[in-house]
What does this fold into?
Amino acid sequence: MSRTDTASVDPAWLPPEAFRALGGRRTLIRGAGPLVDTVRGEVADACGRFGGRLVEGDEPRDLLLEVVDASDGIDVDDSETESGPEGFTFARDGGTTTVTASDGRGLLYGLFHVVRLGEAAFDGESPRETHRPATALRMLDHWDNVAVHPVMGQVERGYAGGSLFWRDGRARGETERIRAYARLLAACGVNAVCVNNVNVHDVEARLLTDRIGEVAEIAEELRPYGIRTHLSVTFAAPVVLGGLPTADPLDAAVRDWWERAVRGVYGAISDFGGFVVKADSEGRPGPFAYGRSHADGANMLAAALAPYGGVVHWRAFVYDHRQDWRDRTTDRARAAYDHFAPLDGEFAHNAVLQVKHGPMDFQVREPVSPVLGAMPRTRLALEVQATQEYTGQQRHVCWLGPMWSEVLRFRPREEAGASVGETARGGIVAVSNVGDDPFWTGHPLAQANLYAFGRLAWQPDADPLRILDEWIALTFPAAPERLAAGLHRVLDGSWATYEKYTAPLGVGFMVQPGHHYGPGVDGYEYSPWGTYHFADRDGVGVDRSAAGGTGFAAQYAKPWSELYETPGTCPDELLLFFHHVPYGHVLHSGKTVIQHIYDTHFEGVEEVAEALRVWEGLADLVAPARHARVAERFEEQLRSAREWRDQVNSYFLRKSGVQDERGRTVY
Amino acid sequence: MSRTDTASVDPAWLPPEAFRALGGRRTLIRGAGPLVDTVRGEVADACGRFGGRLVEGDEPRDLLLEVVDASDGIDVDDSETESGPEGFTFARDGGTTTVTASDGRGLLYGLFHVVRLGEAAFDGESPRETHRPATALRMLDHWDNVAVHPVMGQVERGYAGGSLFWRDGRARGETERIRAYARLLAACGVNAVCVNNVNVHDVEARLLTDRIGEVAEIAEELRPYGIRTHLSVTFAAPVVLGGLPTADPLDAAVRDWWERAVRGVYGAISDFGGFVVKADSEGRPGPFAYGRSHADGANMLAAALAPYGGVVHWRAFVYDHRQDWRDRTTDRARAAYDHFAPLDGEFAHNAVLQVKHGPMDFQVREPVSPVLGAMPRTRLALEVQATQEYTGQQRHVCWLGPMWSEVLRFRPREEAGASVGETARGGIVAVSNVGDDPFWTGHPLAQANLYAFGRLAWQPDADPLRILDEWIALTFPAAPERLAAGLHRVLDGSWATYEKYTAPLGVGFMVQPGHHYGPGVDGYEYSPWGTYHFADRDGVGVDRSAAGGTGFAAQYAKPWSELYETPGTCPDELLLFFHHVPYGHVLHSGKTVIQHIYDTHFEGVEEVAEALRVWEGLADLVAPARHARVAERFEEQLRSAREWRDQVNSYFLRKSGVQDERGRTVY
It folds into this structure.
């Protein structure tokens, strides 16, 4: 095992200073077990730095951190254990702050709650509050390859350097950095990590069997922070690893093979979380080859995992990526619903269907996937993308908290029904944006996305702006008001800004094919991947209505199906996703579509320029290396935003012939 | 040295059967030297196969192959040596065919002339004809990398497998295959090969110094067929290899370094041909970095090579590949002329300026480069591209003989002036289309391009259709008329067909960026590489007139400058290269531009379908492996041609709003 120089890694939202309030106090810790040891270590470190101390027995204390075992029934009333697994209660009374949890994980989350509160945790009185995560699984999927992929590299869609776990075909073995990563994740509420890419290539396939030891070594470092390890596996494993002639999920030998494989995995990692599977998608193998359903495929793996408490996350990202653009009856947006909704009720209890938040592919604006409202008898997980594949690739500031919050608050079944955040019983998952970059995320401000993901996964109805300010306060402890306000200003609204200068009104894509960075208005217009805008000299957009289009709008429950069905009721920001309209169509905003395109593209660039000015004004308040890194990326963002503005505006001027009513330069 | 199984390599235009007429005769060979030995070996092989024999002294003979040394003055009248170096005379008189040359190379070319003639070489009487090459240098540039490039692979723009010379960073050492390649080249008239890519990366740079031995081993195999070896070098070699602080061409230490390097090269390869240099182009280093001109750069290398008779080929492919598409004053087409024409007269006698045939980059249709008519005091080489980068990548049949012939016959200075073929005193060069594919060129019919290149380089005013039939007769000896006619039909006109279904009317590009295969109408429209069509709802094309455009048309001498200046006189096939016109503009053909686009795209696909039918009808006459390979590529060509047709037609229908007047399907 090589050691990482963790001093060279950014402390992100856990700088030593964030522990000042805690570290100056007297803390009593009650409980036992590895996670309690982790809590004790954190407190001891903080005390060593800030002069407080760990106390014992009846000594006076400022803070009590206590695991109360609900099962022993002694000295515990029911209300104290109501927090459930991973939950905790927080109270302050008579000069003592008390955190109570029913397990070590809850105590760890309670500890980080105290850290977040800072001095406020030790101030005045607080009635008892109970905190518990909305969902039991809050996962980061790493699209990390073990071997460098010839096209996708070490990390597929990774914009933060290499992988934390793998390099050039081998485990890096950098235990300290992995431990530091686990600590950051625990501090925002993440409790699961999938350590390899959902596209499982030849080398990666072997992690399941003869290379499971390398996964176990990662699990060893994640475990002390309450994080379980998951593994992406290939559906074809019985063939490619086991030498069987088939991977048919109903074949007895195949089922035996998986049972043996799973036994081997749990032999190496007793608290292993489960599998992530991308099957029958973009060329990956799957049950279709054997005439079986996705439920057959997922349930076969679920059966193998069930005896050990493991879960399979089966991705719903299944569509035809060899479409013929000439065939307008095919609509990629429909695919997940068409494939999976008929299978509702057929999945095993530990088979979770992992659904991307939108029907397409992590665009800057999509409607919420109708699958999320269509499968009440299936455990669904929501998948979002922290890595900024389509949102600026960590060269642009694009804080995604508000996007994810909108999705989580959306009520897909009916206006008064449960929200996505409430119904995602199978978990909330993000594709990780982290790599071996010293700032973890390439763009230092992209740390805010990772943090916001964890916090929203814990509490989906949280106010994202509160989370943003929380991140600012932790990452920049004791920041002067000018710095906090500046950071807030740079990040808040950055998603809306990004949307303004890229693809308009929900139409999506318009990126360079392949790498997906920068504008390519027709990039996917004639592509087998199936994402089009159909712009011609008269209008733009995709008719997905039931009346005259692809019928995608009808995949929603009311009122959404009705709302989306006609241009008159469709929200502006999704208009071109659902309708093909003339350039002169008047939006609810009162602007025509073409003028909206011009205006937003000019505004977007101006907003980036303004954010850069704000950032430049913070130079005296931010560490030079961090300030320079962000400033350098801002320059690229501004250049790229101008490129987007000019290409999109020129494209639509040339097609529509309509001049900008304000006479600005369109090339 | 590993041996190649040459039996597994296609004999191309030198199948054993092509030697039947020669091999059945009695042949006397007079002369000495390595190339005469090669001739003797060829004849002996043929005789061994077909029953003839080599005779000596005064024995009766059917064929005399004779080197007459012009310098010894004995038994030679002047007319017998008029063929000059590499030339030969051919005559038949009194039952004896006589080939006379003044050197071994000429004798070798004379031998292959006899092979081409077949029985006709031994039939009746023939007055003496003199054959000599139009230019002393007929070269193939291999864009082969030694190490596999992460993006471009082993062969940049190679569509015929790996490199003949290099694999994974090392010389392949497959001497027999290299020798077989040299033999094919000699048989069509090529006499020089540059063995590595003009983009010289780190590994390749070392071929000049410590790895020159690997180049010498290749030269060893090329030499017996009269082929000299050339090397691409990096202008930065004194810095990257020599550790000097500069590569300034006027710096004494730099000049010394090159002198020493050249001395080392000639120490290893005494008949080394010279250097090929791509400088200040697409990121390659060059003299601009030191404030020096291209003449300074080229002349410095020329000075180092001069004592040994070596030549530097300095490429004129210099342009700004970081253009801003918004800046319409920059025109890539102008670049070579703007950079080089002012330097006319400044280049050393052994510094050859190598000029691409068109002002852009090997598009299916370009005007002839104005540089070719603008530098009378400079030795120019013409560069064409046998590898089909933009012409179907050896998946499409696209026989380029007629395109090259048009270029070679073009008279750039005045209508009655010298042709390009006559003025290319510095040589005629093609980028090779050969790799380690068993058919040499991937597509078996692409062999016809390599053959036609060599023959046109030897005789630029030759009728390309005669060359095509010559290739057919050699490659398919004793082909029945149906086969010969079928092959002719499939190949003749295939360039015009390719043009029909791709970018219309000289506008160029419209390909997928990066790999350049398949349609991407806007692929380069907003790109820094600088190639645009400016299509909008009203019209299409680039105004390069002097009156209102970029002024490129004025780079030509009269009458071309006048002809190209106005749409009324500009040839149809170049209209959109020189002018932006409305879709309703009427061509000389009588069609509107938009209808021309529709018609040619439908016709092009029909012509491919018809060629495929013709090919299918030849199944009984072509060896199964060859037939299958061509048939499989034809299927892809047809698919791709349809994709081109539909994307281009849809693009222009959506922009123009003008329906196809024949009501065919446009998506």
About this structure: The two ends of chain A are 57 Å apart (CA to CA). Residues 73-80 of chain A have pLDDT under 50 and may be disordered. The longest strand of chain A covers residues 88-93. The interface with chain B takes residues 150, 325-326, 514, 519-522, 526, 535-538, 643, 646-647, 650-651, 653-657, 667 of chain A (CB under 8 Å).
